[in-house]
Structure formats: structure tokens, C-alpha cells
Write a structure and sequence with these properties.
One of its GO terms (cellular component) is mitochondrion. This protein has 2 helices and 7 strands; from the N terminus they run E-H-E-E-E-E-E-E-H. The protein has one domain (2-163): Thiol Ester Dehydrase, Chain A (Roll). By secondary structure, it is mostly beta strands. The model has no long low-confidence stretch (mean pLDDT 90).
Length: 165
Amino acid sequence: MAQFEGQVSKRQQILDGNQLQKLSLTLNRKELHPGLDISESGPPNGTALPPGYHLVYFTPSVVESDLGLDGTDTSFNAPLPFTRRMWAGGRIQWFDGKPLCIGEEVEERTRLLSAEPKQLRDGSDMVLVNVEKSYWGKMGLSLKDQRSWVFRRQIPTSIADIHSQ
């Protein structure tokens, strides 16, 4: 993972109202904002994304066979044998007056903050990975999304098969 330290991965995407509409309706929310009914059509360009809705954008741009077993991007995964990825926490910071808006081109910048080997009380080992994603729109930095994952050793197939029965 050391090869990623200090590097910033950048991706651009135009925020599509249709994608936002589908997420909002999936969450049983017909009004994206008070008075803005999106049950029949997506929100118009210029509509600000509600907090947390940035998660529907910037999905992995790889073929399925290049995704992890859990369907996620493997760019910042720990190396073998640490293949079991678990959410360890996160924090999102929004910057007032700088919303991401439908129809604008946004840049996502991702960087590895740290990758630390850890040992648990039972003697087993894991890797704690911390990543920061920052989202830049036409008004500048809109939000920072810090994510922490724990990677544990792969479960031996024979044990996994026993528990699935």
C-alpha cells in the first residue's frame, strides 16, 4: 500500500438528476427538498444535492471481475491475505455555501491517509486503511468524506462452507 501514499486519484463526473431521483425514490423520499417533487421526473439542473447523496455518484469504473468479492473498488484494499473488508467508521465534513448541484461537473479526489497493520487481543492481525475523498464543484471544495476500513484475513473456504449450511 506504500505505493499509494501521497498520490491523489482524480475522477470527474457530471451529476445526473436521474441518478439522484432513483436514490431518493428508493429511500421513499418523493420530495428531494420541500416543495420539489421528483416522483415523476428528475430534479432540474442547479438543484443542490442533499447531504449524503454524493454516495450515488463516482461508482467504480471497472468490469465486474475487477471488483472485490463484496462488489467494491479494490484500489485501496490491503494486499493478500487481507481480503475481508469491513467498515470501521467515517466522517463527512460539508462546507457551507458550496453545495454540489445537478448538472455540474464535479471532481472527486481520493488519497490514502494511512494503512496500518494492527494486532488484536487474540493475536490475529489486520490492516486498518484510512482514505479521504474530497469533492470539488464549481464553487470549490464542497465536502470531505473520510472512510476507514479494516481488512482481516480471508476465512478458509472449509470454515465458510460449514457456516453456510
